[in-house]
Amino acid sequence: xxxxxxxxxxxxxxxxxxxxxxxxxxxxxxxxxxxxxxxxxxxxxxxxxxxxxxxxxxxxxxxxxxxxxxxxxxxxxxxxxxxxxxxxxxxxxxxxxxxxxxxxxxxxxxxxxxxxxxxxxxxxxxxxxxxxxxxxxxxxxxxxxxxxxxxxxxxxxxxxxxxxxxxxxxxxxxxxxxxxxxxxxxxxxxxxxxxxxxxxxxxxxxxxxxxxxxxxxxxxxxxxxxxxxxxxxxxxxxxxxxxxxxxxxxxxxxxxxxxxxxxxxxxxxxxxxxxxxxxxxxxxxxxxxxxxxxxxxxxxxxxxxxxxxxxxxxxxxxxxxxxxxxxxx
Length: 329
Ligand code: MG
Ligand code: MG
Hints:
This protein is of the alpha+beta class. It has two domains: 4-183, Fructose-1,6-Bisphosphatase, subunit A, domain 1 (Fructose-1,6-Bisphosphatase, Chain A, domain 1, 2-Layer Sandwich); 194-328, 3-Layer(aba) Sandwich (D-Maltodextrin-Binding Protein, domain 2), CATH 3.40.190.80. The chain contains eight helices and 18 strands. A hairpin with a 5-residue loop joins strand 1 and strand 2. The longest helix has 23 residues, at 15-37. The radius of gyration is 19 Å and the shape is globular. The mean pLDDT is 93. The structure holds magnesium ion (2 copies). One magnesium ion binds next to strand 5.
């Protein structure tokens, strides 16, 4: 099995970017170890503080954020970092060539139940036309990402990564501490009737979204074999979609603060959209590709539908399966 670095070299990734990816992954291995220790490491439970998103911070959220931040602060190739757990941009090196954003621990409500959690990260080239630590560094479209990935802390620790080419999957080999290539190129089937959505939010959805699910649940023969899967950790749900297709949805709803859905553009939607698109799927926000959204703020949220092309298009356009299949041919 191939190791990570030779694979990245073979993909033509430049040495500075490879080193930066290794920095992020060094932090991920430490997080994986703490996660595996669970209550033994004293990292479960809440800190009773809230993050910028108004969510209660878990100890492991704070610890993971600190680990990533400390390692990136020591990396001269980094100009600035942004994290879901930080109020504002953290400047690193005025001459750094990259910026990094991350959700240090996605799905953290799963920590206390020993469920799937993960670290999501994204790398862009630093802009030369704005200050090195300006928020505007991160006002880049998802299409401009030079690398996107996540580490999923499940029964095994997986790295899913794209540097612009295929979405590849690596598994952490605990015997030597490195990531080994276990899937050359993930490929999302065009059609799969599995959907991942929090159905309990039905009452808050707009008429279009309610109608789509009414059809799935009660009438549409296209969805006779539909099945719902919901991990409540986007990274785990999107990993399933990347592995065997289906659709992950987090629509806008009428609750205060969720008018644009719950998923953050910078830390979650963009990196996962890049991985999904590079595995042959689609990732939409309304009728636009997520990767084409012009960011307006650091912690911006966007409605999300990503996964198998046929199922995502059917949701976004509300047309019949037959019409979509014929438009794809
Ligand atoms: Mg998250
Ligand atoms: Mg998080």
